[in-house]
Structure formats: structure tokens, C-alpha cells
Design a protein that fits this description.
This protein is α/β, with parallel strands linked by helices and 361 residues long. 35% of the residues lie in helices and 14% in strands. The relative contact order is 0.13.
């Protein structure tokens, strides 16, 4: 097992046991690849004296006074939330980037970086935490390619195994990922921590009068992809009105867009089908009901039963959109349950309590 370094994650060990049982009984369409093929590959051979591959003395998070949050503009709200949580205890600076991150400034080498969307890095600072935000399916980790899973055709991307090994810690939002990382990092000096994304408070609160978008979809849409085909069928063949944002709203523009939405449709982009908890928690924080396909973790879906609207197939998607978009009573009922669950179980203050309590002393 990959070690989990917080009590909150340990309490969810039953999810891992159920996942393992489901994996044993499920039909596999891929030929297994040995762990040696994955873990024994040669490194990238790059000159990474300040980042990957360099030998360093791993420091405790609590030993830093300065934290620099680097994130892609598409995870704006989660970056703002971790800034809010850490700011009373550390000197925090948040920088959002349009796409690929620039080179880090040697003047900041004494700071601890928190790298959101780390697959966009071109190099790495001496001290960093990886907050892993991508979907890593079991198959993606066994194809023999150690570049970042969703951008493996770009030749200059860093080797994720070396990136993880160089980190102070690796945070991941998914227990599925931690399970899938086990054969790769077995025996390696990598410290993992289960840190899901977070529900966050809004200021100012949203009013019902702002809600003038019935159904919103936002996320990457690639031509010919599963998402593309499903959205085209819903809009053009089944005449379902959906406001589609193909990653064209960021930062404050994204905030304005989400404040207007009543319902969000969540469609899986990758075969991994890990529940898109970042988008779900973001939507709930904005008072939006989430209609979503089930995820790969049956136990996690069960925790969200009656808090999300699960759908299986196009007919159910159409039925539930029609039911919820015009019925505020139904939306409020689901949203109240979802908000209570998110506030109780998805709080950065809870998952990072070890660091925050230490800094209060």
C-alpha cells in the first residue's frame, strides 16, 4: 500500500478494499503489463540540477515560512481556496498561469511551491509539493509511458516518476490514484497524502435571481471525443438546451458564469472515469445541482447518493435535466444535502490540520 499520511484518508480505507474486490471481479480488456516494465524504465536524462533528479534534503512542510502557489487558470477557485486556508499561517503568494508554467525564479528557491496542475511545469524549484489534479486510470499507468498521461505526445514534458520522487509530498484527490500508484512507487521514497479538493464559501452569497442558465457544461471538449459526441446528440438531436463553455471562461469570468448556473452536467472525459470531484465541489460551492455519470468507485458514489443526481445513459440525462432545471424545490433538496456533505467531508482545514495546528503554536 502507498502510505497515507493523514487520519482523514485512513478512515476511508474501506473504499480501497471495496475497489480491490471490484477490480478482481471486473472483466479486463487490456493485457496486464508487469510492474517491472513500469517501475524499471530509464529516466529522461535531462539536466535538472534545480528540479527533477537532483538530490535534496527533504524538509518538513512546517519548516517553511513562504509558500508559493503555482496553478493553471482553470483551477482558479481551488487555488484561491488553498491561499485562503494557508494565508493566516504562512506568507503565501498565488500566481496563475495561462498554460505552460514559466521557469521558476532562483530568488524564490527558499520557498515551498505548491504546484497545482504540475503536468504544465517545464522545470521545478528545489522544494515543492505536487497537488495532483489529473486523472490517472489503471490503464494509463501501464502503457509504458511515464510522461503526463493526458499530454504524452509533447516531447519536453517531465517524467512524472522523477517529479514525484523529488517532491516534499505528493497530494492526490483520489484514492483510486493512490491505489494505482502502488506498483510504480513500491519501495521508493515518496510521501503521499490524500488531499481531496474542497468546498469553499462564497462572498457575496448567490441569490436565486442570478440563476439564469438552466444547464451548464464546462470543461475540455476535443473534436470527435466522447464528450463532443454526447453534447452534440443532446443539443442537436434531442433538443436539450445546454450552455457549453469549452474552457473559455477563467478566473473572474468563470466565477460570473458559475454564479448564473442552476444545473451542471458532468460527463467523463477519460476512460478512467474517476469522479470529477474538483468540478463537483466547485459547482456545489456555487449553489449548483450536479447531474453526473457514475464514477469508477462504487463506494464513493454511494457516499454521494441523494447529493448528486446520478444518470446512466442519454435517456436518463435528458429526463433528469428536464426534471431539475425547472423545479427549484427539487434542486434545493439535493443541494442542501450536497452542501452539508461537502462541508463535513471536503475541507482543506481538515485535511491539512496537521500543518495548520503546528503553525498556531
Amino acid at each position: 500500500m502507498v502510505p497515507l499520511y493523514n487520519d482523514a484518508a485512513a478512515t476511508q480505507a474501506s473504499i480501497l478494499r471495496q475497489m480491490e474486490e471490484e477490480r478482481r471481479t471486473a472483466r479486463s480488456d487490456e493485457e496486464p503489463v508487469s510492474d517491472k516494465l513500469i517501475a524499471g524504465q530509464e529516466g529522461s536524462g535531462k539536466d535538472t540540477s534545480r528540479g527533477v533528479g537532483s538530490k535534496r534534503n527533504r524538509r518538513s512542510i512546517m519548516s517553511f515560512n513562504d509558500i508559493i502557489i503555482w496553478g493553471w487558470k482553470g483551477v482558479y477557485h481551488q487555488c484561491k481556496e488553498i491561499e485562503r486556508v494557508l494565508a493566516p499561517h504562512y506568507r503565501v503568494r498565488l500566481t496563475l498561469h495561462d498554460y505552460m508554467f514559466p521557469h521558476t525564479d532562483p530568488a524564490d528557491d527558499g520557498a515551498l511551491y505548491i504546484l497545482m496542475t504540475p503536468h504544465l511545469c517545464v522545470d521545478l524549484p528545489p522544494h515543492y509539493i505536487i497537488w495532483q489534479t489529473e486523472q490517472w486510470g489503471h490503464y494509463m499507468l501501464q502503457v509504458g509511458n511515464r510522461r503526463w498521461a493526458n499530454q504524452r505526445n509533447e516531447p519536453d514534458l517531465l517524467d512524472f516518476v522523477e517529479v514525484f520522487e523529488g517532491a516534499v509530498e505528493v497530494w492526490d484527490y483520489s484514492l483510486v490514484h493512490l491505489k494505482n500508484f502502488e506498483p510504480i512507487f513500491k519501495g521508493k521514497d515518496v510521501k503521499f497524502r490524500h488531499v481531496p479538493f474542497s468546498w469553499f464559501p462564497l462572498d457575496p452569497p448567490i441569490t436565486e435571481g442570478e440563476k439564469n442558465i438552466d444547464v451548464l457544461f464546462y470543461g475540455w471538449i476535443v473534436d470527435g471525443s466522447r464528450r463532443n459526441k454526447m453534447l452534440d446528440e443532446l443539443r442537436f438531436e434531442r433538443n436539450v438546451s445546454i450552455h457549453v463553455s469549452n474552457m473559455d471562461a477563467y478566473r473572474e469570468d468563470l466565477t460570473k458564469l458559475l454564479r448564473r448556473a442552476k444545473v451542471i452536467l458532468n460527463i467523463h472525459a477519460y476512460p478512467a472515469k474517476v469522479l470529477e470531484i474538483c468540478r463537483i465541489l466547485e459547482a456545489i460551492s456555487f449553489g449548483i445541482v450536479v447531474i453526473t455519470e457514475p464514477g469508477v468507485e462504487a463506494a464513493l458514489d454511494a457516499q454521494w447518493k441523494d447529493k448528486l443526481v446520478f444518470v446512466d445513459g442519454m435517456d436518463q440525462i435528458v429526463q433528469q435535466i428536464e426534471a431539475y432545471k425547472s423545479n427549484s424545490t427539487m434542486r434545493n433538496q439535493v443541494l442542501q444535502a450536497a452542501t452539508a456533505h461537502a462541508k463535513a467531508h471536503y475541507s482543506l482545514e481538515m485535511y491539512l490540520a496537521e500543518f495548520l495546528q503546528h503553525r498556531r503554536m
